[in-house]
Amino acid sequence: MMSNHSSATEFCLLGFPGSQELHHILFAVFFLFYSVTIMGNTVIIVIICVDKHLHSPMYFFLGHLSAVEMLITSIVVPVMLWGLLLHGMQTISLAACVAQLFMYLALGTTEFALLGVMAVDRYVAVCNPLRYNTIMNSQTCISVVIGSWVFGFLSEIWPVYATFQFTFCKSNVLDHFFCDRGQLLKLSCDDTVFTEFVLFLMAVFIIIGSLVPTIVSYTYIISTILKIPTASGRRKAFSTCASHFTFVVIGYGSCLFLYVKPKQTQAAEYNKIVSLLIFVLTPFLNPFIFTLRNDKVQQALRDGVKNCCQLLKD
């Protein structure tokens, strides 16, 4: 316990319970997931940059989404992996905690903005194909991507600032594997109710605000696809949206459970499980979701492997 008049200058992360042997098993599993995440998303970014057949708005947005996924998981997972190797509690400085909280919140907000943009892109492609190239021109695509990144980072400045205006004098032990805002607020000696409510409203605005265009877009998309007379035509139209829709369900579902709650300080065990979905599972699934159901990406991968083999033979 800490003095009532002092605030923590560093925090101890409890991480995962269990024996050292269990920690080593978790380390191996999470390291595998993290390695596949980095390699898979890197491959997606590289083939989108290299293959001219993927130089379209859909893949331009996908490249940025893959970059965001890599950054989000790299903000949290390496710290978690290091904690699993330590025998005692892991410590993190106040400055590092502020940076980690800001980065993952900013990147998460950027991801939601990009998912909303990708939904609108699919709406234009399916419902207004003749004007697709005119509407989704290069200038529009670059502008909305820059806007998504800027909005993501600017929108999280005040929430992080407000979080660290409190005095953390109850303890400096965080029952988590990273600097989670809900667990930080538990350590405050101040009244956090009003700030938690404001943070809840901001989470609703960001998550629901980007979810609304996604829902509206897919309502029109489904309606348009059902009007296509042939089964092959319906299947082809839906295949262009299936990957994005799957990712939306997984990404929004886990974040709605974690952040859109009036009370930010929910149970630590629940918090850890949902956080694993966000920082480990979702980024891990991203390359598979966008490659296994996408013929163009699969063809680009085959061409890339074929070109590499030819270079090695030469």
Indicate the structural class.
mainly alpha
Categorize the overall geometry.
globular
H/E element sequence: EHHEHHHHEHHHHH
Instruction: Please state the second-level CATH architecture.
Output: Up-down Bundle
User: Could you report the average pLDDT, rounded to the nearest whole number?
Assistant: 84
CATH C-level: Mainly Alpha
How many beta-strand runs? Answer: 3
Distance between the termini: 67 Å
Q: Estimate the strand proportion.
A: under 5%
What's the total helix number? Answer: 11
Family: Belongs to the G-protein coupled receptor 1 family.
Pfam families: 7tm_4
Domain G-protein coupled receptors family 1 profile: 40-290
Main location: membrane
Quick structural gist:
With 314 residues, the chain is mainly alpha-helical. It contains eleven helices and three strands. It has helices at 20-50, 57-85, 94-127, 132-135, 138-154, 157-163, 181-186, 193-226, 231-259, 268-292, 295-313; strands at 10-13, 90-93, 173-174.
Please explain how this structure is put together:
This protein is mainly alpha-helical and 314 residues long. The chain has a single domain, classed as Rhodopsin 7-helix transmembrane proteins (Rhopdopsin 7-helix transmembrane proteins), CATH 1.20.1070. It contains 11 helices and 3 strands, in the order βααβααααβααααα. Strands 2-1-3 form a 3-stranded mixed β-sheet. The model is unreliable at 1-5 (pLDDT under 50). One of its GO terms (cellular component) is plasma membrane.
How does the SSE layout of this entry go?
Blueprint: E1 10-13, H1 20-50, H2 57-85, E2 90-93, H3 94-127, H4 132-135, H5 138-154, H6 157-163, E3 173-174, H7 181-186, H8 193-226, H9 231-259, H10 268-292, H11 295-313
InterPro entries: GPCR_Rhodpsn (IPR000276), GPCR_Rhodpsn_7TM (IPR017452), Olfact_rcpt (IPR000725), Olfact_rcpt_6C-like (IPR047132)
GO cellular component, one term: plasma membrane
Subcellular location: Cell membrane
